[in-house]
Description:
Distance between the termini: 24 Å
Largest sheet: 9 strands, mixed
Number of domains: 2
Strand content: 15-25%
Number of strands: 21
Helix content: 25-40%
Amino acid sequence: MALVKGFKGLRFNTEKSGDISTVVCPPYDIISEEQRLEYIKENEYNIIRLELPKGDNPYNNAKTILDEWLENGILTREESNAVYIYEEEFTAYGKQYKVKGCIVRVKIEEFEKGVILPHEFTLSKAKEDRFNLMKATNCNFSQIYALYSDEENKTISKLDKLSSGTPDIELTDSDGVIHRMWIVTNEEDVNAICGDFTDRKLFIADGHHRYETALNYRNYCRENGLAKEGDAVDYQMMMLVNMEHPGLVVFPTHRIVRDLASFDKQEVLSACEEYFDITEYDSINNIESVLTELYNNNEKAFGMYCGEGKWTLLVLKTLDTMAVLLPNVSKASQGLDVSVLHTLILEKLMGIDAENMAKQINLTYVKQIDNAVKSVDNGTADCAFILNPTKISEICDVSSAGEKMPQKSTYFYPKLITGLVINKLD
Length: 426
């Protein structure tokens, strides 16, 4: 199935670049312009200058900077093929977690081959940006995050053994997440880890845009005589994690509805009565605990917030409704919380169609409940829907069925940091 290899990664030479903690950054798509400038102010060699370039010709700027850093020894290449064991330690839901996997090169395949499977739809603008960056730099600066099934923990036992000593790299980011990396170059160990994936499928957890861009870039290189089958552009840098790992955490992404021509809370709730059990609450303070209890009981439930500190609980009466609305998809897709919200509430009952949602005309996605509440309270939103997270098992079931979830169905936490290792595609 999946073809996995070690690779000679590019890494910062900290004797010239400065401390590793000052040259890494979060993924480009969650960084504001203010944050971008702060990273550069702290260290001119921060990876953000390559991953999120700016200027009149940003992609060529990134290429120029990359070439300069390579020439001046700011970035140096591993002397032999390596597997990079990567661990994050963090706090979520008031508990301490660790999640560990390996960063490798993976041969990319079209989704229809069933080797590497997506779970979310993507937006074209982000893919165009990443494609232009790859054309200019011929690099992966950040990893695609993918899951695999290994109930016997065959691979993680190898990774744990090889990472029992002091990490080669360790840093704590501004969110308090500890990042550790062990660099494995022993050929026997590298081959043993990579060989574990011969009979496995991979499920993309995060990085759908980057994966689809990688396919487009590979095809572009072949069509223009820049590469042939088997060349480096066939392989992309991925972080692979066992889907049974106890450290995996998925956060929900909440929906803000805004700028509707007309919005009437009671009208929406009246329409919901046929399909949902409805309960009113006087304080927003218990919304997470109530939704969590229903999540643990496998109920399909949402919090609807319309202001004044009060919220409404909507609990789906029966999944039979979804079988009628989405007859041509699997039960796995029919039963997703986001499917119920998008198809039944937003589209059928509120008239916000799928194209509108994809273009975010009347819909905004936010990670924090507080931000969703504030947007309603300050009048920039008509209402907000608070969701439970998507379960790992649901992600794999939908992917295995050859289907995709709506955009922003999952938010794996924490994000993988950018800059620990780079995959140059040559």
